Every structure is written in structure tokens, then in C-alpha cells.
UniProtKB/TrEMBL annotation:
GO terms for cellular component: mitochondrial inner membrane. GO terms for biological process: malate-aspartate shuttle. Gene3D superfamilies: Mitochondrial carrier domain. Solcar repeats lie at residues 6-93, 101-221, 230-319. This is Mitochondrial glutamate carrier 1. The gene is slc25a55a. It comes from Lates calcarifer.
Amino acid sequence: MSQQQISLPAKLINGGIAGIVGVTCVFPIDLAKTRLQNQRRGQQVYKSMMDCLVKTVRSEGYFGMYRGAAVNLTLVTPEKAIKLAANDFFRHHLAKDGKGLTVFKEMLAGCGAGMCQVIVTTPMEMLKIQLQDAGRLAAQQQKPVMMSPTKLVATNTFLSRSYNSGMVVSAPRAVSATQIAKELLQTQGIQGLYKGLGATLMRDVPFSIVYFPLFANLNHLGKPSPEESSPFYWAFLSGCLAGSTAAVAVNPCDVVKTRLQSLNKGSSEETYNGVVDCVSKIMRKEGPSAFLKGAGCRALVIAPLFGIAQVMYFVGVGEYILDNSPLSLLSA
């Protein structure tokens, strides 16, 4: 790969198509992951991933499982394109001598890719989480919970729930990602969309450091010869295994990121003042096992997502589209 001339537009197309296909397939599991991670001890609405999906369909309908999918599908194209293209770019420039990359250089390339992608990932996750978690909050509010008035925290118009005499009485009215984004920009500025940036970096940089070298080495094992590429099914399996391994490894960071980016809180749920405060409160009140919440769901989301991405990437869908585009045909 390092010896090939990089076609950046083709890599961006490959990453974009892979992201759209992958997200469409696994988004319901991602929704279950977010809701399971946001549950607190003693306030569980869902017992497992399947229980969450069944209850979601019953209370919100089939399309309730795709709550927040629109913003994800819109932004996953640049996000996945940046991640895959940046890794390819860094690998290309770290291997100028024509030799294979060392594991350290592969990890360095992955680190660069992870740092680049958070430009898009942070606001995408911020908006997606609000929409995904709305159903859990509505389900929790169906059981009236008495609260001390001092526990009630006022939030803005779109991101608040109604309280009356210390009792949670109504679910928030449906809002769109556009409304949430506008309200955040008006009240907090651009930093409102980048809340949880530190936690996102903590998750995505280590993920890329683990994923890309692991995938490259697993994929290398499937090559019939040094000159040939591995078959597409091997690229898919390598992407799945590397993705699920990296996802579970960084799941504690994903739990912290999800908690920090959740603007709406259920009755008596903790608020957090940064990464350190979040980690300490979770450890003290819920124990170490809380950091593994949603790990199975996250592995099931990431495995096919990156498996599909690598197949698109190495089959060269983007190159085919560019070669057969009207501009390419005219220039020929």
C-alpha cells in the first residue's frame, strides 16, 4: 500500500460509501449501546441489548431504532473518509524508504488518523447521543420518581424536561438534530458542539492505534504472496476482528464520552465536570464493571462497520467510480 500513489478522492469515496452502508446495517445496535451505557445502577430500564431493542420497537415503533440515524448518516461520510484516508496518507509518508512499516510507525499512523477524525466525530456523536437517549429518558419518566427540589437542574428550552412539585411528569417533546445544534450554538457557541472533545480523543486515538496496525498485520496473513492482495473475504474478517478488539479495548473511554455528552439527565442522575470527575464518580457509585457497559454492543457495531469499510476500501469502489465518471470519460 505504501508504494502505491494515493488517490485521495477515491479514498474519500470509499470511506464515505463504507460508512453509509455500515451505519445503516448496525445503527439499532449502536442505539442500544448508548442507552445501556447511560443507565445508572438502580435505574435500569433495559436488561440487555435484545431487551432494549424489543422495548424500543414496542414503545417507539420500528423506526425508533433509527432515532438519530439521519445525523449519523450525514456526518459518517466525512468521518470515515477522514479516518481511512488519513491513515493511508500517514502510512504512505512514513514508508518513504520503500520498506514495510514497523509496528511503531503503524501505531503512529493510526494515532494521526484518530486525531484527524475527531473534527467531525465529536459534533456527530454529540447530536446523535441526544436523539438516541431520548427514548430511555421517556421510558424512565413513565415511572414517577420523587426528587428533592434541590436536585432539579434547569436546562435550555429544547434540552429540558418538565418538573412539577419534585416529580418527573412528562417526556421531552421531539426535537431534531438541527434544533439541538442551533440551540447549542446560540447558548454555548461552537464549543457546545465539541463538548466531550477530550473524551472523544481518549477513545478514538487509542482505537486507531490498536485497530490499524492489528488490521494491517491480520490482513497481511491472508496474502497468497507478497505481491498479491489478500482476498476480499479475508479483508472483511480482518476488519471485523481488529475492529471488535479495538472497540472492547477502549470501551471505558466510550462510556465516559457518552456520559459527558448526554445533556439531558434522568431523575437523580449525576452530572459530571470533565473526564476525571466522570471517571471518579462512576468508579465510586457504580464500580469498575460500569466501564464495560455496552461493550458487547459496541463490538457488534464496530466489527461489521470496519469489515465493510475495508472491503470497500481494498476492492476500490472509489477508483471505479472516478474512472467511469463523466469527467474522466471526457478527458479520455
